[in-house]
Amino acid sequence: MSTRSSAARLLPVFDPAPSFARALEEHGAPPLVRRQVRTLQVNVGKLCNMACHHCHVEAGPKRTENMTRPVADRLVELLGNSPDVELVDLTGGAPELNPHFRTLVEAARRLGRRVIDRCNLTVLFEPGLEQLPEFLAEHDVEVVASLPCYSAANLEKQRGRGAFDKSVQALLRLNRLGYGQPGSRLKLSLVYNPVGASLPPAQGALQAKYHDELSRHFGIVFHDLITITNMPIKRFAHALARAGELERYQSLLVNHFNVDTVGELMCRSLVSVSFDGRLYDCDFNQALEIPAGAGRRTIWDVESLAELNDAPIATASHCFGCTAGAGSSCSGALR
Fold it and tell me: Counting runs of H as helices and runs of E as strands, what totals does the chain give?
């Protein structure tokens, strides 16, 4: 009988050993280095109106971590000093629940940067956010909306009872404002991630299926579908461990390593900032508190994000999630 405790089996901790670095070397790929920072991804906090099973930051209604005004102001200042940054990607938790969300949107748009709101859709029904869709449309904010499945049963396995109907109503409201309509400047993308321990199917074929199902049953339109591989960290890793599938899923990712995805990894052009102003190479490294490989620790340690160009990127075993199969990034499949 094993001497390991049940708690140890249920609370997996990922060892940031250089196994991913070895995989790069064995396939003739150099260590990961950032090219030029084009995307500033800001995690404004872990407060969320939902507690999804796959959430790698373990967000939820009881989380209290939230970005303060001084951090938001410094981000705006840093953005102004970083003209090469084209996109501000706001995430969370539910980013809309942060009191400085609108300030960040307005400031980024004044500076001429594109803005993405990573929206769980159900948040649009929270008290005080009734006019949020109109605000997003007024400022040409691109909405990247999480919709793990086009069927109620599968979606609610991840998000809870009632989440599907709210998501449908939110999408219809966005459609009425022009989001997702053919030729509209108001971009609406949907995000799919698998319910269980598997890789996403081919993005193009699944996008066609989403278009058909959502249009036929609800009259919903959207522009693109983004497929994202679930990372075996935090809450999803706990769920895998409870089901006895953690090791199998880790092996699946490693065995499907695709060196052709490495050149397109999002960390090559992205910097992630946490609610308290710490710098990371991606949102997954942020969740695991793996500092940026550049050695700069906070937004107060740099005067421009260009200082992070050509810097090494910190990697660990979870990086196999971004390089498995067709690859995965915040913008979808890589190949």
Answer: 11, 8
Whether residue 117 is contained in a domain is answered as: yes
Spell out the alpha helix ranges (H) of the chain.
Answer: 6-10, 19-26, 69-80, 101-110, 132-138, 152-159, 163-176, 203-218, 234-242, 246-255, 283-288
φ/ψ (deg, to 5) at 291: -60, 155
Closest CA to 290 of 10, 73, 18, 68: 18
Any domain includes 101: yes
Backbone φ, ψ for residue 72 (5° rounding): -60, -45
Residues of the domain holding 291: 33-240+266-311
Tell me the pLDDT of the chain (335 aa) as tens digits. Answer: 333 333 333 334 444 344 899 999 999 999 999 999 999 999 999 999 988 777 888 899 999 999 999 999 999 999 999 999 999 999 999 999 999 999 999 999 999 999 999 999 999 999 999 999 999 999 999 999 999 888 888 787 777 778 899 999 999 999 999 999 999 999 999 999 888 899 999 999 999 999 999 999 999 999 999 999 999 998 889 889 999 999 999 999 999 999 999 999 999 999 999 999 999 999 999 999 999 998 989 999 999 999 999 999 999 999 999 999 999 999 999 99
In a domain, 287, yes or no: yes
Task: Please state the pTM of the whole predicted model.
Answer: 0.92
Residue 40 · residue 87 · CB < 8 Å: yes
In the chain, how many domains are there? Answer: 1
Calpha distance 146→138 (Å, rounded): 21
Phi, psi of 271 (to 5 degrees): -125, 135
204 located within any domain: yes
Q: Is 136 left (phi over 0), alpha (psi -120 to 50) or beta?
A: alpha
